[in-house]
Design brief:
The chain has 2 domains: 69 residues, Arc Repressor Mutant, subunit A, CATH 1.10.10.10; 113 residues, Winged helix-like DNA-binding domain superfamily/Winged helix DNA-binding domain (Arc Repressor Mutant, subunit A), CATH 1.10.10.10. Helix 1 crosses helix 3, helix 5 crosses helix 7 and helix 5 runs antiparallel to helix 9. The relative contact order is 0.12. The radius of gyration is 21 Å and the shape is elongated. With 214 residues, it is an alpha+beta fold. The protein has 9 helices and 5 strands, in the order αααββααααββααβ. The protein has a 3-stranded antiparallel β-sheet. It has a two-stranded antiparallel ribbon with strand order 1-2.
């Protein structure tokens, strides 16, 4: 007697509609775990089937795209239509990152965890003001302190960074040169050099009140 294969989930029209509404309404990518929790009365395999059926539906839609980003699901406009969406929201120049901001963000993305001094050495210019901007925009965060004299802060990227650049996780980062070309800046020479990971100390309670980059 042969063993029966596990039964595949069923993606009903109602469940697909609910999953679509949840993903669309969520302000950030909604994870499979969150979907399973919100739809606890539904079999997990049915929820998973609804997600896959919904993704297939969006593959043939000309305006919107179903993507997996930052460990979750999101419904976004297609890249080729971004210019039209920007016109709708009258994106202000202050919302765009400067070349200095993009360079600093790239250094952190590819070298993290990294200190402000190390970023400055790679870029060749002081970066404290830029770090403050990136922190305010939640693109980077303080992830610990370097285990050296002075215990300087170590910086890393955030979930918002993954969302902004359409990455599921850091392993999706393209080559440094490709990222720089896509964003329109020349990568600093030191950015392509390999460096060992920092020995990191966890943040203590006293760090919570410190706000400036060190």
């Amino acid at each position: 007697m042969t063993e029966e294969a596990p039964q595949a989930g069923t993606a009903s029209a109602e469940l697909k509609a609910i999953v679509e509404a949840l993903i669309f309404a969520s302000p950030e990518p909604i994870t499979p775990r969150m979907l399973y929790r919100l739809l606890a009365d539904e079999p997990k395999e049915d929820v998973a089937a609804a997600v896959q059926a919904l993704k297939a539906d969006y593959d043939s839609r000309p305006g919107l795209l179903f993507v997996e980003v930052a460990g979750g699901y999101q419904i976004v406009t297609r890249p080729e239509l971004h210019e039209w969406v920007r016109r709708l929201f009258h994106e202000r120049s202050t919302q765009r990152l400067t070349v200095q901001g993009l360079e600093t963000l790239a250094v952190i993305a590819y070298k993290q965890p990294v200190t402000a001094l190390e970023i400055t050495e790679i870029r060749g210019v002081d970066t404290h003001g830029v770090l403050g901007t990136l922190l305010e925009r939640h693109l980077i965060k303080i992830v610990g302190r370097k285990n050296v004299v002075g215990r300087p802060f170590l910086y890393g990227t955030t979930k918002e960074f993954l969302i902004r650049f359409g990455l599921n996780d850091l392993s999706d980062l393209p080559k440094v040169e490709d990222m720089a070309e896509a964003l329109g800046f020349d990568p600093p020479a030191g950015l392509t050099e390999r460096t060992p990971r920092e020995e990191m100390l966890p943040l203590g309670d006293e760090d919570a009140s410190e706000v400036g980059p060190t």
